[in-house]
């Protein structure tokens, strides 16, 4: 009788779509680690921690976030590429995942083949080009004029050419025929203060790291890199509106694991991510920073990454960047 009842419960759970443990041999039965290859406070870190809080509830195990910054995300990401393909070690990544192969001469992993896409958590309308709230540049045209008056002396902060901030800055310089001095930092949270205090003249930052400073007046946003304006900064024009039609860079945030994770475990991780992304708490956080919650399935995310790699190759070619060693 006990066997019959247990079997009936298992079958019922499977038909309800909740037979996770049976189909994946009890996965997960221990904490899952998410490596964030950027510093604490970076947009990817903020989103990963919000996701981890939600996912822990549904998975029944702790989801632990660990920061391993360095080399524009390559150091932390390489840890995941070499991890056992069991679904217990993931990486929370962003646009840098598809730009690094084209700006770094010797990569410790293959971006196309060494990872298992899980889901895209969110997508943003891009990053913002900012100056200090005290800067004489009130518009992007003002900044361009000032920069051309002093070629090679004005600076722009960024998180490295592999990040959207560095890529957007290089593309902007190419299109506007400017000579700015690039000042790379480990993450956007590291240079917000330096822009506000005029240690550097400008910078490109994600919405998460900049919007509060813009709204408080410490930073002034001059242009947005994406195809449309952000609802949280509606008065800030896009680069495209201002005549820079090739500037169409959007941000995204997603979860990957090492290549070879069994599909049943990938499906469990995706289903939980889908649930977490739909939670009011997670959506409110992303909405606060003008980011759209996505929750794409693994196949959709894999296709997106492949297309993003191709598009990034074209951009890097346009700016004439030579990969570093």
How many strand units? 11
Helix/strand order:
HHEHEHEHEEHEHEHEHEEHHEH
Described by its quaternary structure, the protein is single chain
How many DSSP helices? 12
Strand order of the largest sheet: 2-1-3-10-4-11
Name the poorly predicted regions.
1-23
Strand content: 15-25%
> At the third CATH level, what is the topology name of the largest domain?
D-Maltodextrin-Binding Protein, domain 2
Output the radius of gyration: 21 Å
Tell me the distance between the termini: 67 Å
Into which percent range does the helicity of residues fall? 40-55%
Q: How many discrete structural domains?
A: 2
Report on the structure:
43% of the residues lie in helices and 19% in strands. By secondary structure, the protein is of the alpha/beta class. The strands form two sheets. The chain has a six-stranded mixed beta sheet, sandwiched between helices. Helix 3 packs across helix 10 (263-277), helix 3 runs antiparallel to helix 11 (280-288) and helix 7 runs parallel beside helix 12 (298-319). It starts with a helix and ends in a 6-residue tail after the last helix. The relative contact order is 0.18. Residues 1-23 have low confidence and may be disordered.
Give the arrangement of secondary structure elements.
Layout: H1 2-15, H2 20-23, E1 32-36, H3 43-59, E2 63-67, H4 74-81, E3 89-94, H5 96-103, E4 115-124, E5 127-132, H6 140-149, E6 155-158, H7 164-176, E7 181-184, H8 188-196, E8 202-206, H9 207-216, E9 219-224, E10 251-258, H10 263-277, H11 280-288, E11 292-293, H12 298-319
Parallel strand pairs: 1-2, 1-3, 6-7, 6-8
Antiparallel strand pairs: 3-10, 4-10, 4-11, 5-8, 5-9
